[in-house]
Batch of 3 targets.
Target 1
Amino acid sequence: MPLKFLLLLPISLILLTACPQKKTSQSFQSSIQSSQSRLDPHSFSRHDQVKVTHLELDLKVKFKHKILEGFAILNYQRLTPEVNQLVLDSRDLKIKRVEMVNNSKNNQLNWRMGETIEGLGTALVIDLPKDNSPIKIHYETMPQASGLQWLTPEQTSEKTQPFLFSQSQTIHARSWIPIQDTPSVRLTYDATIRVKNDVKALLSADNNDQKAIDGVYTFGMKQPIPAYLIAIAVGDLQMQQISKHVAIYAESSILEAAAYEFAVTENMISATEALYGPYRWGQYDLLILPPSFPFGGMENPKLSHITPTIIAGDRSLDSLIAHELAHSWSGNLVTNSLWKDAWLNEGFTSYIEARITEAVHGQDRMQMEATLVYQSLIDSMKDMSNDEQKLINPIASADPDDYFTSVTYDKGRFFLEWIEQQVGRPVFDQFLNQYFNHYAFKSIETDDFVNYLNQHLIKQHSDKVNMNQIDIWLNQPGMPDFFTPPKTNRFIKIDQQVNSWVNGQLTTEKIMSQNWTTQEWLHFLRALPGEMTIEQMEKLDATFGFTNRKNSEIAHDWLLISINNQYQTAYARLIDYLSSIGRVKLIKPLYQALMKNSDLHNFAMNVYLKSRPGYHNIAIKQIDEIVGYVKTE
Ligand code: BES
Ligand code: ZN
């Protein structure tokens, strides 16, 4: 699309529109001070009193109105006999009526919407029946449900059927199910999903190849899971079983490419089982979502949700599959009970991801990825406060997503890798295997891990590692000075070439890039000087064809450099990239870079206006802020 089309809308029109009226609701900070009673600051649930144990969902998918409509039956356990109320989380749910499930005639139950807190939604308080019979909540979702994205047929690759997918982590399950939406509570579930169009429904449960002719799909999830792992997807989906435990679900045009790209998934499962014990979820399927999916991947049990942007054609970005698979142990089996302990999920998972990558793709690839990740960790810590750099994050955040930073993932990972190096791999592997077994299907806090670590590892190996060092990792900012950063000869060689190129001793054509992998290209791009001349940019592009690279990560890095150096030749690709991809990790830095240069503000706003309708709520929330978009409503 020619640039001028995007420049038509004046930025002032958008910026001057009035701020929407906020509903009266308590802010998170004031609620945290006033309410001592919430066990999980991000949930209204009182699971110490009454705990939901099983959910039976029955939902109609109404694409035309962008709503789910039906009921949820909840089974529960009363832990405090004198308590007669069940408190659930909800956000933007239309509750119609609540009943008890038994044979009595008057089976209506009293209920009311309780406290509303900005960002958390509204408590749903239900008077429980004396006999503890299950309760049935009739409800429907709203089109703006934060956990659901509704796509029109035009927004899919096949363009014939609409598409729906959920993203419940961290606290969006409550926008499509009335539930105790806290990772401290686990439940099993059964579900019936009713669809009209010629589409297939999938859940984070047992799926199969059957296409229901009557549009009624039934599912069961027998392992207890937290609410954030409940997921749904509905669309024109085809399935291909690629190995014993792995099937791919995708729109037909990408099914084959996905089957090739993710071919080593079965080996990843075997490698992880060899380290940490059996995969406890039966099937491990991959659902390839449309490109608007805001994340790289989401570890929905039995069925990871995956961005199509990692289909590179050469399996070079499949560590993301290793990551989502690893969550089947770290996260889905042993879960952080509070979001502030997210590192127990993500740090462990990033560590295991690296172990899986090493097992299936070799040490070189793992080491290159480690070095790239370390570099970004150091860079991002430069913009963080001291507290934000601590693994045990002492900040009370209203938005639990704030607990997912590179510290959570990568400092967590390097911490575990460091312990491994101190005690030796066999000892640490054995320890982790035992840890997953011990806490299987439980939700824990950092203290639980630290005590277990002390009891079962540190005490036995006090000559090699001590609790003081552990404390430094957990409670000090930055990286400990006793940590040795990863490095790889493959990158050292690249650095040498970049230096010679910068000094004019090496021409662009002479750069030895013949056998570079994706990771080497990424390092090369990151090693280039921040400021380059247009001649240098043109030369690099002419020699290496960066502007037209299909690999989404390489294209991302090049587009970032192009923005920073105002290399306009790449802008058409940039527009295409930003309007066809909704993965936050890939688009957010590009918008941020555009907004750093006031000459590019109009460009940013115009490409955003064009792309925003296709983005997910999660992306919209972040990018609105970056480009200064004000909603008119
Ligand atoms: N569980 C996360 C995704 C997530 C995090 C969703 C926080 C909502 C809130 C998933 O496992 C993840 O970490 N995805 C990464 C993959 C990467 C680190 C390999 C992503 O999407 O980029
Ligand atoms: Zn993860």
Target 2
Amino acid sequence: MKNKKTGEYYCLGIESTADDFSIGISTFKGEILANIISAYIPEKGGIHPREAARHHAEVASQVLEEAFRKSGLKPRDLLVIAFSQGPGLGPCLRTGATVARALASYLNLPLVGVNHCIAHIEIGKLTKRVKDPVTLYVSGGNTIVSAFDLGRYRVFGETLDIALGNCLDSFAIEAGLRQSHGMPFGAMVEKLARKGKKLIPLPYTVKGMDTSFSGLLTAAVNLLKKGEHKLEDLCYSLQETAFSMVTEVTERALAHTEKKEVLLTGGVAANKRLQSMVEAIAEEHNAKFCVVPSEFAVDNGAMIAWTGVLAYKSGLVTPIEKSFVKLKWRLDEVEVPWVK
Ligand code: AMP
Ligand code: MG
């Protein structure tokens, strides 16, 4: 309901597509009042969906409490509950959806299912004051070049197999790196790559507007196992090759659409080398270049809350019986009536 003191409306958003469980709260004007993120860090190896889901269930009430504390709001101040309905890992999505349904039923509030990829774009537009960008969204689970056209965000290019972040993470795991002090694998690869000097030839795969990273990963891991190259040089070469691929596709989307803004988002957007490559092509096309602040570039609840606001204001709600999770929900399947 409307807050009597502030005259504002609030939406709470729940994110749980993969390794992060997060709850954010946004006003209807786009002020982010809370964005609490709890990341699941596996003891060894990559993300196990059921283990990640167990983490989400364990931390949910604590994250929720923290979000209310940070925002200074009470559950009764909310007007809408939004949640990441897909795409993502089944057990993780279902945990977030269960929390969302429980809250909506208990508080008797409308529920809004949000497409996770669209939320990444919308939070970038909000926080960087961007209107109509070509977006390069690169994370642990997604690699998408997209831009708005005729009522929807269209996919101009995407990965045909694994995501860019997954490629970096898998290489780091093979190289025996261990996640410590919350430093993501991609950031470790970046740190090592800075000391690399030799560019080792690796498979560069762009098919039409799509990219493929699995051959690149296999080749890099094979070279790693041979032990003939320095790890720093392999990290450097892996980054140069993979980042050039996504930058090439982004540049072609920019040339084709003639948009005047480029937005870089997703966990991999934190990478300085990738930022400089994408910035260079933006400059060449006289487009403004923006990177989403890291708190909102990784998976986060604030982006779900804000996209929930946009959808709800356009009259979109998700009845409980239609709130099942959609593991492979593409962003180009979604009408976005709030974008003109
Ligand atoms: P997300 O899926 O959006 O939560 O982002 C997580 C992904 O971002 C993982 O694949 C991380 O390894 C990657 N990542 C985080 N920081 C960096 C960095 N500095 N360079 C490259 N990748 C990164
Ligand atoms: Mg994540």
Target 3
Amino acid sequence: MGKALDGVKILDFTHVQSGPTCTQLLAWFGADVIKVEKAGEGDATRGQLRDVPDADSLYFTMLNHNKRSITLDTKNPKGKEVLVTLIKQCDVMVENFAPGALDRMGFSWERIQEINPRIILASVKGFGPGPYVDCKVYENVAQCAGGSASTSGFADGPPMVTGAQIGDSGTGLHLALGIVTALYQREQTGRGQKVLAAMQDAVLNLCRVKLRDQQRLERTGVLKEYPQFPDIEFGDAVPRAGNSSGGGQPGSILKCKGWQKDPNAYIYFITQAAVWPAICKIIDEESWITDPHYATPAARLPHLKSIFARIEEWTKTKTKFEAMDILNEFDIPCGPILSMKEIAEDQSLRDTGTVVEVDHPTRGKYLTVGNPIKMSDSPTEVTRSPLLGEHTEEVMKQMGYGDVQIAELRASKVI
Ligand code: CAO
């Protein structure tokens, strides 16, 4: 059995994080991803946040598995000729340069279509058309402009960004879906198309529940599941909800045994309506099962703080894993707050290939996150990221270049 995207050739013109996460996914599904990097320099992340001198950084390696790398100066006329050949032979071109960079290089969408009408041009940009279309954007800018920062953090603190890279990796995921969808449509039409995923749009898509709450707030003036209720007055925009779930099933982060010393001795606890009687029994408050102040989800909303404080008295007597075991016996939804150390050491994540150990010629063994999407007939084997220009010669030969031409291009530093 081959891979799902066997035979799909990707011209990977991406750098930093958002674009590379997209093409890494496509490579994991079997596409031949040819990463085109600036001759002599390569993707800037190769040298950023280095932990091993002179070896590609984890930043780079963890975003560029299963790809091939070629170096090419695409501002040089001879380099542009090579790029034209690549465009002719590839199914998809993916890029996340600053707005206008591809046009300045001489490769507008019109020109790319002339070269290969079947190609799909997929781009990440910070913003879609509008006042900020020309802006350069990094992760946290997208989190701020997409509505995530204004709705994250605590009510009495400033807006907060999250560690989950929803702007970069989140947009990469969106773009990957756009690419496979365009490939599917090309089966019928025979033509490629332009696919755009703007980081602001992707973040907003992931924050859609907050736009839901904005409209609920405008209609009713209150969000009863939010920690502000009933003590603090709501303003005209969705406030920061701290660790409250803010959804239909109230939840909160509660201390567990050892919290005084361990910053991650906490559990997320959800008071799902269906298991309310079980919760009351576990925390020894059986009267709350029928007490009209507690018996229904609506009755509980004004008391959520004191309810969670009572549950926390119980969770503080258990480690997060003990609490997890007890609560799961009663189908009470909960989750331990896992540190990155605990995740790195978790055998079950290793067993499923979600955390993978990879060997690299210059940096040695390291851990990475494997493909989070598991397909029964297209399993992923994670292979190391390429060294800068490791496959230049191989790819040039596959494109039809001879030894003499390759030597000339090398001598003039085009590749
Ligand atoms: N040969 C020659 N030149 C090359 C080349 C190659 N192989 N590959 C790229 N270049 C050139 C480009 O043509 C461009 O040149 P000009 O500025 O003269 O047109 C330049 O290198 C790279 O451009 P850039 O502006 O994209 O790079 P930057 O480091 O200044 O900006 C970033 C980085 C991420 C802010 C910007 O690319 C961007 O906004 N991208 C879109 C949004 C995005 O993806 N952001 C997430 C990044 S991950 O955190």
